[in-house]
Amino acid sequence: MAVLTSLEDMVRAIAGSVMNAQHMVEKAQLANIASFFDDRHQPTVIDMELPAIHSGAEAEAFYQYRVPVISLVPHSSLIIGEAEIELDVELGAFEDHERGGVHEGIMDQLGRAAPADKKAGLMVNAGNGGLASKNGNAVHIKLKLVATDKSEGLARLVNDVVKAQGPVAMRRGGEKA
User: Looking at the DSSP assignment, which residues form a beta bridge with residue 21?
Assistant: First the structure.
Protein backbone atom coordinates (compact mmCIF):
# COMPACT_ATOMS: atom_id res chain seq x y z
CA MET A 1 0.00 0.00 0.00
CA ALA A 2 1.42 3.35 -1.04
CA VAL A 3 1.61 5.94 1.71
CA LEU A 4 1.00 9.27 0.01
CA THR A 5 1.72 12.61 1.58
CA SER A 6 1.59 16.07 0.09
CA LEU A 7 4.83 17.45 -1.27
CA GLU A 8 4.04 20.62 0.68
CA ASP A 9 3.94 18.66 3.97
CA MET A 10 7.20 16.89 3.07
CA VAL A 11 8.96 20.18 2.28
CA ARG A 12 7.53 21.74 5.46
CA ALA A 13 8.83 18.80 7.50
CA ILE A 14 12.29 19.06 5.89
CA ALA A 15 12.39 22.84 6.42
CA GLY A 16 11.30 22.41 10.04
CA SER A 17 14.03 19.83 10.60
CA VAL A 18 16.66 22.14 9.10
CA MET A 19 15.45 25.01 11.33
CA ASN A 20 15.62 22.74 14.39
CA ALA A 21 19.14 21.67 13.41
CA GLN A 22 20.18 25.35 13.06
CA HIS A 23 18.69 26.05 16.51
CA MET A 24 20.78 23.20 17.97
CA VAL A 25 23.93 24.61 16.31
CA GLU A 26 23.18 28.06 17.80
CA LYS A 27 22.62 26.58 21.29
CA ALA A 28 25.95 24.74 21.05
CA GLN A 29 27.66 28.03 20.12
CA LEU A 30 26.06 29.79 23.11
CA ALA A 31 27.26 26.98 25.37
CA ASN A 32 30.75 27.45 23.94
CA ILE A 33 30.68 31.20 24.70
CA ALA A 34 29.34 30.49 28.21
CA SER A 35 32.33 28.21 28.84
CA PHE A 36 34.54 31.34 28.90
CA PHE A 37 32.70 32.61 32.02
CA ASP A 38 32.47 31.28 35.57
CA ASP A 39 29.37 30.62 37.68
CA ARG A 40 29.24 34.29 38.72
CA HIS A 41 29.26 35.34 35.03
CA GLN A 42 32.77 36.71 35.35
CA PRO A 43 35.20 36.04 32.49
CA THR A 44 37.65 33.18 32.98
CA VAL A 45 41.11 34.76 33.09
CA ILE A 46 44.74 33.78 33.00
CA ASP A 47 47.48 35.80 34.67
CA MET A 48 50.53 36.71 32.58
CA GLU A 49 53.68 38.58 33.32
CA LEU A 50 55.11 40.65 30.51
CA PRO A 51 58.22 42.84 30.55
CA ALA A 52 57.56 46.54 31.11
CA ILE A 53 59.01 48.07 27.95
CA HIS A 54 57.97 51.71 28.23
CA SER A 55 60.71 54.34 28.39
CA GLY A 56 60.41 55.00 32.15
CA ALA A 57 60.42 51.31 33.17
CA GLU A 58 63.13 50.02 35.46
CA ALA A 59 65.38 47.25 34.22
CA GLU A 60 63.76 43.84 34.66
CA ALA A 61 60.38 45.35 35.59
CA PHE A 62 57.31 43.29 34.72
CA TYR A 63 53.63 44.05 34.44
CA GLN A 64 51.15 41.42 35.54
CA TYR A 65 48.13 41.17 33.25
CA ARG A 66 44.86 39.40 33.98
CA VAL A 67 43.70 38.41 30.48
CA PRO A 68 40.17 37.13 29.77
CA VAL A 69 40.48 33.88 27.83
CA ILE A 70 37.58 34.83 25.52
CA SER A 71 39.75 37.59 24.04
CA LEU A 72 42.52 35.14 23.10
CA VAL A 73 40.62 32.77 20.81
CA PRO A 74 38.86 33.38 17.50
CA HIS A 75 35.08 33.27 17.38
CA SER A 76 33.04 32.51 14.30
CA SER A 77 29.48 31.34 13.99
CA LEU A 78 28.30 28.24 12.20
CA ILE A 79 25.11 28.33 10.21
CA ILE A 80 23.43 25.89 7.90
CA GLY A 81 24.36 27.69 4.70
CA GLU A 82 22.88 25.23 2.27
CA ALA A 83 20.46 22.37 2.74
CA GLU A 84 20.61 19.58 0.24
CA ILE A 85 18.82 16.28 0.90
CA GLU A 86 18.63 13.64 -1.78
CA LEU A 87 15.24 11.98 -2.08
CA ASP A 88 13.66 9.78 -4.72
CA VAL A 89 9.89 9.98 -4.60
CA GLU A 90 7.10 8.63 -6.74
CA LEU A 91 4.76 11.36 -7.88
CA GLY A 92 1.08 10.82 -7.18
CA ALA A 93 -2.05 12.68 -8.15
CA PHE A 94 -3.06 16.22 -7.31
CA GLU A 95 -5.48 16.55 -4.41
CA ASP A 96 -7.54 19.49 -3.30
CA HIS A 97 -6.77 20.79 0.21
CA GLU A 98 -8.64 23.33 2.28
CA ARG A 99 -6.84 26.66 2.34
CA GLY A 100 -6.20 27.40 6.01
CA GLY A 101 -4.72 30.29 7.95
CA VAL A 102 -6.34 32.98 5.82
CA HIS A 103 -7.54 36.19 7.46
CA GLU A 104 -11.26 36.36 6.65
CA GLY A 105 -11.44 40.17 6.81
CA ILE A 106 -8.81 40.49 4.12
CA MET A 107 -10.43 37.74 2.03
CA ASP A 108 -13.73 39.68 2.05
CA GLN A 109 -11.95 42.80 0.76
CA LEU A 110 -10.17 40.96 -2.07
CA GLY A 111 -13.37 40.00 -3.86
CA ARG A 112 -12.64 38.14 -7.11
CA ALA A 113 -8.87 38.49 -6.54
CA ALA A 114 -9.10 36.30 -3.44
CA PRO A 115 -7.47 32.88 -3.71
CA ALA A 116 -9.75 29.88 -4.10
CA ASP A 117 -11.10 28.17 -1.00
CA LYS A 118 -9.22 25.03 -1.97
CA LYS A 119 -5.66 24.62 -3.23
CA ALA A 120 -4.06 21.82 -5.20
CA GLY A 121 -1.43 19.71 -3.51
CA LEU A 122 0.93 17.29 -5.22
CA MET A 123 0.92 13.91 -3.51
CA VAL A 124 4.16 11.90 -3.36
CA ASN A 125 5.20 8.45 -2.16
CA ALA A 126 8.55 8.71 -0.39
CA GLY A 127 8.76 4.93 0.05
CA ASN A 128 8.90 4.13 -3.66
CA GLY A 129 12.10 5.96 -4.59
CA GLY A 130 13.52 3.33 -6.96
CA LEU A 131 10.82 3.87 -9.57
CA ALA A 132 11.01 7.64 -9.14
CA SER A 133 14.75 7.73 -9.85
CA LYS A 134 14.24 5.70 -13.04
CA ASN A 135 11.60 8.20 -14.15
CA GLY A 136 13.72 11.20 -13.15
CA ASN A 137 11.37 12.31 -10.36
CA ALA A 138 13.85 13.21 -7.63
CA VAL A 139 14.40 16.07 -5.19
CA HIS A 140 17.99 16.97 -4.29
CA ILE A 141 18.92 18.67 -0.96
CA LYS A 142 22.34 18.70 0.80
CA LEU A 143 23.25 19.80 4.35
CA LYS A 144 26.38 21.96 4.60
CA LEU A 145 27.76 24.05 7.50
CA VAL A 146 29.66 27.24 6.73
CA ALA A 147 31.45 29.74 8.96
CA THR A 148 30.19 33.30 9.19
CA ASP A 149 31.42 36.43 10.89
CA LYS A 150 30.73 36.64 14.59
CA SER A 151 27.51 38.35 15.60
CA GLU A 152 27.57 42.05 16.40
CA GLY A 153 26.70 41.30 20.04
CA LEU A 154 29.65 38.92 20.44
CA ALA A 155 31.97 41.36 18.65
CA ARG A 156 30.96 44.14 21.05
CA LEU A 157 31.36 41.86 24.08
CA VAL A 158 34.86 40.79 23.06
CA ASN A 159 35.74 44.41 22.19
CA ASP A 160 34.63 45.62 25.64
CA VAL A 161 36.59 42.80 27.30
CA VAL A 162 39.70 43.80 25.34
CA LYS A 163 39.24 47.49 26.26
CA ALA A 164 39.09 46.56 29.96
CA GLN A 165 42.45 44.77 29.83
CA GLY A 166 45.46 46.36 31.41
CA PRO A 167 48.09 45.75 34.02
CA VAL A 168 46.80 44.75 37.44
CA ALA A 169 50.17 44.84 39.24
CA MET A 170 53.84 45.64 38.67
CA ARG A 171 56.81 43.55 39.83
CA ARG A 172 60.32 44.94 40.00
CA GLY A 173 63.35 42.92 38.96
CA GLY A 174 64.42 41.70 42.44
CA GLU A 175 60.92 40.85 43.73
CA LYS A 176 59.35 37.40 43.67
CA ALA A 177 56.14 36.87 41.75
Answer: none
Q: What pairs with residue 80 in β-bridges? A: 145
pTM, to two decimals: 0.54
Q: Could you give the 3-state DSSP secondary structure of residue 109?
A: helix
pLDDT per residue as tens digits for the range 94-139: 677 666 666 667 766 666 666 666 666 666 666 655 555 565 555 5
Residues paired with residue 43 on neighbouring β-strands, in sequence order = 37
pLDDT surpasses 80 at 51:
yes
pLDDT above 80 for 55: no
Collapse the DSSP code of 102 into the 3-class scheme (helix H, G, I; strand E, B; otherwise coil) and give the result: coil
CA 30, chain centre distance (Å):
10
- CA 116, CA 107: separation in Å to the nearest integer? 10
Distance CA 26, CA 37 (A): 18
Q: What is the DSSP letter of 128?
A: -
- The rounded distance, in Å, linking the Cα atoms of 31 and 147 is 17
